[in-house]
TrEMBL record:
It comes from Bordetella flabilis. InterPro entries: SoxG (IPR007375), TrmE/GcvT-like (IPR027266). It comes from the Bacteria. It holds the Pfam family SoxG. Gene3D superfamilies: Heterotetrameric sarcosine oxidase, Probable tRNA modification gtpase trme, domain 1. This is Sarcosine oxidase subunit gamma.
Amino acid sequence: MLNEQKVVSPAPRHESPLTGIGQLLAEHGSPNGEFAVDARPQVGLCIFRASPEDAALHAAVASVMGIRLPLPPNTFTQGADVRAIWLGPDEWMLASAVWPARDMEARLRHALGPGHYSVVDVTSGYTSVTLSGRKAPLVLARGCPLDLSARAFAMGECAQSVCFKAPVIVCAGGSGIYELIIRRSFAEYVMLMLRDAYKPIQQADLRY
């Protein structure tokens, strides 16, 4: 008889795709704060789609999430618990380090009821990483074609781009802070490439 000893498997848990290289990334950070990498595996992510012209629905989302969905292209809005990232005219990514995606989804469905919208938990498909420090834009620019200068990519703006050969969503936090949302299967590759990109400029006195 199978499983006669009634062994119970451990409950599944969400683990960062960067778990295996966490120490390696820490060792290659800058001790003086010029460049740092912070992996954030517990960020809940949902894709929300709805008409940008449905004012009542947007008001209901704002009452539940504490933020309004951004309508200007390539921008994000930041609330106390949730960030809403514009992905297209009728599509946003909701990110929260406080609420699990299943809670965001449940709150939205409860508040909105049946209607013409969709909300999907995509947490397991992505990971979130924050780059910070004076040299962060220099490091990111070695693999990302965006103009990362403050005049072209200001705080509160976002873009879908590439980092080396991986698709990423980049959010500008200001003061040399960038959040990258990366597909899970590319996360380790992107982090190792950024580590290598930092090496040539580690000792150089460069500014973006």
